[in-house]
Amino acid sequence: MSRRMKIDISIILQKATELVDEQGLDQLSIGLLAEKLEIRPPSLYNHLDGLNELKQKLAIQGVNKLNEYMLQAAVGRSGDDAVRAISQAYIQFVREHPGLYDASTRFPDTNDQELQQAQEAVVQLVLQVLDAYNLQEEIAIHMVRGLRSILHGFTSIEQMGGFGMPLDINKSFLILINTFIEGIHAVMINEDKHMQRND
Amino acid sequence: MSRRMKIDISIILQKATELVDEQGLDQLSIGLLAEKLEIRPPSLYNHLDGLNELKQKLAIQGVNKLNEYMLQAAVGRSGDDAVRAISQAYIQFVREHPGLYDASTRFPDTNDQELQQAQEAVVQLVLQVLDAYNLQEEIAIHMVRGLRSILHGFTSIEQMGGFGMPLDINKSFLILINTFIEGIHAVMINEDKHMQRND
DNA sequence: TTGCGAAAACTAATCATATTAGTTAAAATA
DNA sequence: TATTTTAACTAATATGATTAGTTTTCGCAA
Fold this sequence. Notes:
2 copies of one chain form a homodimer. By secondary structure, the first copy, chain A, is mainly alpha-helical.
């Protein structure tokens, strides 16, 4: 068992994921990770280029996994229902993988191809969900940004224990999402009015 | 000039603030800060207990300053207008003091009395602004959480360069705030309906 | 004015981490 | 079996925070 665990990059990523989800991203260090893998710190450099590359890989994994969660949730739903479902999936992912999520939002090199691609996939998924509202294309993109802000903001604050008051956090989340959805409907109506004027 | 700048904690905080706002919170180190103050790193320990305490102080300063910005913006306004104004103040603060804002959201010891007090002040301000909507008290608190999520989420993503597409970010922000406001109005109407049913 | 005591600087040393260099053992393959 | 590659190792270096112990500076009281 001692020298036969055939460590490769995927095992490293797996252990690193466990580590950050259990102890927080800040606790991730070459030393601690090596210890968990029962090898010496320098040995990790045979598999990756350093702590930053590792974090970058975690970031990519995080975005991809988030996308999977949301995709699953969106299947077979549409409209308001779909928006609620992907939102629920988002918060669920962050709660189950706080470290991975943190990695995907805190450090990442935004220029990284693979990361950009993963993020783009999420954007496309949300755009597809919002398609049901028949928004002008530009407005739709603004709404994607809006929903993303809401989801990232809410989950971040929850993770850092930022909601002080003793009031049901899940309820806050539901209300927030519903308020946003109501808002979209209102914006749709306004758009329609403009359309009528313009025609 | 050389040895006569009488460094005290407020000068240190001031320089640290400049440093994090210009170079990012991650660049804050005892060494670099000491250099800027033209003293040796260990000398800083005559004034504070270490890097963590410094970050905590920055966090408190950040929340207090954010509160000032929002307070200023809220003066003389009410309703939708006030919501837009404090939102605008929030994003302005984050843009002008990205490092300070980061400090106030990333590391802080949430148990710190002074920090809690500062955060509570912001919450109270927003509650006051939302007073115009005559929401049920509990709903009002949910809405405070919602607005905070929106503001924190949007600004965080903007700061990390997360909005990829070439589409006006300010417009996205305006639309998001307006969508939320519209949502509140819709929720109000629903609440009224419930009231009528219950009477 | 002088000299004491506190404040605040300093140097030197320690500790924790990441990282690099160079070496060796094990396993895969020809 | 011999060779090549992979992946471990030890040893050393660099950077940063921090601590210990010392010295300098400066305001103030005798």
